[in-house]
Amino acid sequence: MTKLDLYANIVGRDVIQELHQLANLLKGRKVVHVNSTREGGGVAEILGRLVPLMCELGINTKWKVITGNDDFFQCTKSMHNALQGSPIGIPESLLKIYEKTNAQNAEALREELEAADIVFIHDPQPAPLIKFCPNRKGKWIWRCHIDISRPHRHVWKYLGNFVTNYDASIFSIVNFARRLPHPLYIIPPSIDPLSEKNKDLSAEEVHSVYDKFGIDVKNPIILQVSRFDRFKDPIGVIQAYRFVKIFTPSLQLVLAGGSATDDPEGSAMLEEVKTAAGDDPDIHILLLPPDSNRTINALQRGANIVLQKSIKEGFGLTVTETMWKGKPVIGGNTGGIRLQVINHHTGFLVNTPEGAALRARYLLHHPDKIKEMGYKAKEFVRTNFLITRHLRDYLTLMVSILYGVKERIEL
Ligand code: UDP
């Protein structure tokens, strides 16, 4: 039995068979994914699961990570913020470092990238690599994971100069797509139900994780799992918690996060969060190492209320992870959260800390609703946001792009 067969119990045998049929058209092809961090954040999370499955299907798939110094990541983080709408320009000197770093990375990767049949370049950090691989033989696809629906215009114009050279782009949601001179594909991300982060855990294990952090599972818990990032609005989460605590004094808040090597702003945000938390013994800020998948799994399973109060969100894998655990999510009314949280059905969409508090109070008083909405949430993820659907979309895209298929693929 292969690893892929294990998913049949979750999504049905037909789905797995279809993956094999599609992959038969791609056997032995060379595919390279490139991003800018091996751990931390959603992209690394996805690639860590997707790449081995593509290999198992007989596609020769590699995952490469570009490297850079602090200035490079400062530049790409500013670019990320500007593309998500912050009105900030980027100094010419930093853009020079951005291009130079990509040129240096191209030196190490060129042979492999130029020989590949398909190259997936994830997000803006490695986007200029295409310029430094002039003899590329395969198709290059820019895979954008962030919300660039309202970018700071100058920054998008600059990045767009690289992106236009690609053969296709992928966005997570229709709204995020930009006008580009090549085919655009819409492929939402996914989670792996068999990963340490998402597989079933015993109640004992869940409780022991909370015990380890000195958090009392007998009292209600609100949780947000996120990098310490302004767009995730951890300060808004603390405000929401404080509103609810007025009515539920035993309430505890858990903010669990780590850092990503391509995110230099995390520590400043963490300090702000600590200041906002003050000396409240019921606020637990957990700084988790990158391999804390089982811990996060347990935290998500044990919390009474899970928030993802982002003000911008490319997709929000934390939302999918929580919904898969049979829980509704109270999520910011933005980006990819809207794709997952169907208001009043799989969770609640909120715009303010007050709104989040209102919904949290409602759910705390209606455990039956948590169960009902949680069931819908899980089934919604099963149908739309599991890795098998993601894999099928990627395989279909690869077949259509390599074979020039315009209408339908015969299996
Ligand atoms: N995550 C993690 N440790 C942390 C914080 C987050 O492993 O301390 C994981 C989280 O479970 C999710 C991913 O990182 O799988 C974050 O993806 P998401 O799309 O929610 O946000 P991003 O960080 O990509 O903006």
Poorly predicted residue ranges: none
| Structural class based on helices, strands and sheet pairing | alpha/beta
Overall helicity:
40-55%
Percent range for β-strand residues: 5-15%
Q: Write out the CATH superfamily name of the largest domain.
A: Glycogen Phosphorylase B
Q: List the helices and strands in order.
A: HHEHEHHEEHEEHEHEHEHEHEHEHHH
The number of distinct helices, counting runs of at least 4 residues, comes to 15
CA-atom Rg in angstroms: 21 Å
Straight-line N-to-C gap: 23 Å
The fold-level CATH name of the largest domain is Rossmann fold
What is the highest CATH level, the class of the largest domain? Alpha Beta
The count of strands amounts to: 12
Question: What is the overall shape?
Answer: globular
Which kinds of small molecule does this entry bind, naming each only once? uridine-5'-diphosphate
Structure at a glance:
The chain is of the alpha/beta class. It has helices at 8-11, 13-24, 42-56, 70-83, 92-115, 153-163, 203-212, 234-247, 266-277, 293-302, 317-324, 335-340, 353-365, 367-384, 387-403, and strands at 30-35, 60-65, 118-122, 139-143, 168-171, 184-186, 221-225, 252-257, 283-287, 305-308, 329-332, 347-350. The structure holds uridine-5'-diphosphate.
